[in-house]
Automatic annotation (TrEMBL), chain A:
The gene is fabG. One of its GO terms (molecular function) is 3-oxoacyl-[acyl-carrier-protein] reductase (NADPH) activity. The keyword DNA-binding does not apply. The keyword Lipid metabolism applies. Coiled coil: none annotated. Its EC number is 1.1.1.100. Pathway: Lipid metabolism; fatty acid biosynthesis. This is 3-oxoacyl-[acyl-carrier-protein] reductase. InterPro entries: 3oxo_ACP_reduc, KR_dom, NAD(P)-bd_dom_sf, Sc_DH/Rdtase_CS, SDR, SDR_fam. Belongs to the short-chain dehydrogenases/reductases (SDR) family. It catalyses: a (3R)-hydroxyacyl-[ACP] + NADP(+) = a 3-oxoacyl-[ACP] + NADPH + H(+). Homotetramer. Residues 6-188 form the Ketoreductase domain.
Automatic annotation (TrEMBL), chain B:
InterPro entries: ACP, ACP-like_sf, PP-bd_ACP, Ppantetheine_attach_site. Carrier of the growing fatty acid chain in fatty acid biosynthesis. Pathway: Lipid metabolism; fatty acid biosynthesis; Glycolipid biosynthesis; KDO(2)-lipid A biosynthesis. It is found in: Cytoplasm. HAMAP family: Acyl_carrier (MF_01217). Pfam families: PP-binding (PF00550). This is Acyl carrier protein. The modification O-(pantetheine 4'-phosphoryl)serine is found at S39. The keyword Protein biosynthesis does not apply. It comes from Marinicella sediminis. The keyword Lipoprotein does not apply. Its main location: cytoplasm. Belongs to the acyl carrier protein (ACP) family.
């Protein structure tokens, strides 16, 4: 860590992977702001980050006004971030033939358009600081595809192209842009699977276990730290070998 | 030198990290050809002008601001 404490903004930090990332960065010495869509979620984040001086904020990443308000609040409290972790996302799975325009738009807006909006909102501060890390949380589905997830896969694949382009644009300012692409991670979502589904899932994973949120968080920390400073435009797959790029 | 001219030159020097005094900066200097700016520098420069003079410079106007004098003229007319 440099002498001046770096500020990290993690979206979707109330649970699962986002919470693990916020905790991990915070333990490593970053001053962390985590976001949630509800005030209750933001309060819970403030609670778990309070020992390290971090805070929770309300943010809807699909809404420009909400982003502007969140960044304003951040600027007035702990300062503008030099690390942005775009983690917030949703799924809305349906076979294409059953997928409405709303189902498509919701996932594209929340998972893909949001990273354009968030990156744009944060990049000016990074340019001024002449350093920055944008870390986008993708998915193995963005590279593999999955039936029922054409919207989600398109958003996560789009994230990779976005990150490569932005990495080329801002590299000269010491700003890196990367994607961390999780495979099957143990979260609320995978806890709902029954034993049969679980077994079937693990058959695809050479390491024969689900990933933990901390596996993703450690990879994010690596990219955010000095150790990862020469990596940009890259997608790091953290999936137990279920997809090897 | 007018206040606007002075301020614009200060911003140009700061943004492009130039090692010159305000009085030494030529009005006819082109950001890219004479002062070594890259495309990102010119974007940052326009954003710094917007911030300082509290105006919004549309993309089609921003593209036409390529010299120190053009920046001074634009700000004088629009801010």
């Amino acid at each position: 860590m440099s002498t001046k404490q770096q500020i990290a903004l993690v979206t979707g930090a109330s649970r699962g992977i986002g919470k693990a990332i916020a905790n991990c960065l915070s333990k490593a010495g970053f001053l962390v702001a985590g976001t949630a869509t509800s005030t209750g979620g933001a309060a819970a984040i403030s609670e778990y980050l309070k020992d390290t001086g971090g805070l929770g904020l309300v943010l809807d990443v699909a809404d420009q006004e909400s982003i502007d308000a969140c960044l304003k609040q951040l600027k007035e409290t702990i300062g503008l971030p030099t690390v942005l972790v775009n983690n917030a996302g949703v799924t809305n799975d349906k076979l294409l033939m059953r997928m409405s325009v709303e189902d498509w738009d919701q996932v594209i807006n929340t998972n893909l358009s949001s990273i354009y909006k968030m990156s744009k909102a944060c990049i000016r501060g990074m340019m001024k600081a002449k350093t920055g890390r944008i870390i986008n949380i993708g998915s193995v589905i963005g590279s593999m595809g999955n039936p029922g997830q054409s919207n989600y896969a398109a958003a996560k694949a789009g994230m990779i192209g976005f990150s490569k382009s932005l990495a080329s644009e801002v590299g000269s300012r010491g700003i890196t842009v990367n994607v961390v692409a999780p495979g099957y991670i143990q979260t609320d979502m995978t806890d709902e699977l029954d034993e049969g589904q679980r077994k079937q899932l693990l058959e695809q994973v050479p390491l024969k276990r689900l990933g933990q949120p901390e596996d993703i968080a450690q990879t994010v920390l690596f990219l955010a730290s000095a150790a990862g400073s020469y990596i940009t435009g890259e997608t790091i797959h953290v999936n137990g070998g279920m997809y090897m790029s | 030198m007018s206040d606007v001219e002075n301020k614009v030159k200060e911003i140009v020097i700061e943004q492009l990290d130039l090692d010159v005094e305000v009085s030494e900066l030529n009005n006819s200097s082109s950001f890219v050809d004479d002062l070594g700016a890259d495309s990102l520098d010119t974007v940052e420069l326009v954003m710094a002008l917007e911030e300082e003079f509290e105006c919004e410079i549309p993309e089609e106007d921003a593209e036409k601001i390529t010299t120190v004098q053009q920046a001074i003229d634009y700000v004088t007319e629009n801010a």
